[in-house]
Amino acid sequence: MDTVQQATTSPVQEAWNKRPLIISGPCSAETEEQVLATAQRLAATGKVNMLRAGIWKPRTKPGLFEGIGAKGLPWLQQAKKLTGLPVAVEVATAKQVQDALTFDVDVLWIGARTTVNPFSVQEVADALRGVDVPVLIKNPINPDLELWAGAVERVARAGIKNIGLIHRGFSSYGNTEYRNAPMWHLAIEMKLRHPDMPVINDPSHICGRRDILLEVMQKAVDLDYDGLMIESHIDPDNAWSDAKQQVTPEVLAEMLDTIIWRKEDIESEALHAALEKLRQKINHLDDELLQILAQRMKIAEQIGEYKKDNNITILQTNRWNEILEKAFQKGEKNGLSHEFLTRYFDAVHMESINHQKKIMDA
Ligand code: PEP
Ligand code: MN
Q1: Which ligand 1 atom minimizes the distance to the CA of 114?
Q2: Distance from the CA of 111 to the center of ligand 1, in angstroms?
Q3: Is the CB of 111 under 6 A from ligand 1?
C-alpha cells in the first residue's frame, strides 16, 4: 500500500511529468556552499523543477577538475531537503550508480561521453536492474543515432520505465559557432522513434557560451521539446568547469521569462482549420516534389544508358560543380540555406548515382 502510494505521488514522478521540465544547476558540484546557494536561488525563481550537478566529471584531458566525487553527494541531499527539488546526477560506472542511489539521487543521467561506449552503458544498465529510478540519456558526442538508440535499448532492457533523452549536440573538429553542433534533425528523428519519451534540450553544451543560449532555447521550445537542462552557477565566471556557458539562477529565470512558449495543440477551431489548409498545401507540394524527383531519377537512368553505351564514367565532377553553383545562387536568392542546399543536393546526387550504377551494372 505504502509503495503504491509513493509510486503515484512521489515528488520525483511529479517533477518528471512537468512540462516544460526545467532542470538546472551547476556543471559541477564544487563546494557545499556553492551547491546549497545555487539550489536555493534556483528554487527561489519558482521556474525550476529539478536540480542538476555533476559529481563525477568526464574531462577530455587529465589535470582538469574531475569532479568532487562521492563527497558531494550529501550536499545534494541537503539541497533537496532545503528546496524540495529532486536531484539529478551523471553516472558512468556501476559504482557511481550505487553511490548516487545510496545518497537518494532521484534521477540519473548518462553523459555524452558514456553513451558512445556500449560497455559503459551496459555496466550502468546492469547496475540499474531492479531499481526504480528515471534515467536520462544524452546523445553520444558523435552524430550516430543508432548508438543513442542502442543506449536507450540497453537501459530499457534493464527494466527502467522512465527514460528521457537529452539533446546536447555533436562535437566536430575545429572552432565552430557552437561548442557542439545541434544537428536538430537527429534529435527530431529520435523524438519520432520514441514518441513517449520526454526529449530535453541542453543548450548549455550545444552553445558553450552564454550569448546564444536564448536562441537555442527558443528553437527547442518551438520544436516542442519537453524540457530544458541548463547549467547555472552562483558565480559563472569562476566555475571550476564550463565557466563560459553557465549563467546565474536569476539570469536563467529572465531567459525563461523571455522565451515564447508556443502550444503544440491549438484550441481554437478557426485557427485549426487555417492550419489544416496550410498542411494540405504542404502535402500537395510534397507529393509533387516526390513525383518530380522520381522523374529526375528516370532521366538519370537514361543518362546511365548513354554513359554505358559510350563508356563514360558516372561521376563527372565539372558537371556536378556547375549544377551546385547554379543551385546555390538560385536557392539562396529564394531563401534556402546553404546548409540545406548542400545536404539536399548531396542526397539527390547519391540517389542519382545509384540509379545510374544500376543501369551500368545491368
Ligand atoms: C554535463 O552535463 O556537464 C556534461 C558533462 O555534459 P555532456 O555529457 O553533454 O558532455
Ligand atoms: Mn558541463
Answers
A1: 8
A2: 5
A3: yes
Q: What is the pLDDT of residues 25-69, one digit of tens each?
A: 999 999 999 999 999 999 999 999 999 999 999 998 999 999 999
- Are residues 178 and 170 in contact, defined by beta-carbon separation less than 8 angstroms? no
Query: Ligand 1 centre and the CA of 25: distance in Å?
Result: 12
Q: Which atom number of ligand 1 is nearest to the Cα of residue 242?
A: 3
Q: What are the residue ranges in the chain where pLDDT is below 50? A: 1-7
**2-258: CATH superfamily:** Aldolase class I (3.20.20.70)
For the chain, residues classed under CATH 1.20.59.10 are 269-361
Residue intervals in the chain for CATH 3.20.20.70 = 2-258
CATH number of 269-361: 1.20.59.10
Helix (H) or strand (E) holding 286: helix 269-310
Ligand 2 midpoint to CA 241 (Å): 6
For residues 247 and 208, the answer to whether their CB atoms sit within 8 Å is no
Query: Which residues are paired to 166 by β-bridges?
Result: 138, 200
DSSP reduced 3-state for 125? helix
Q: Which ligand gives the minimal distance to the CA of 229?
A: 1
Backbone angles phi, psi at 20, to 5 degrees: -70, 145
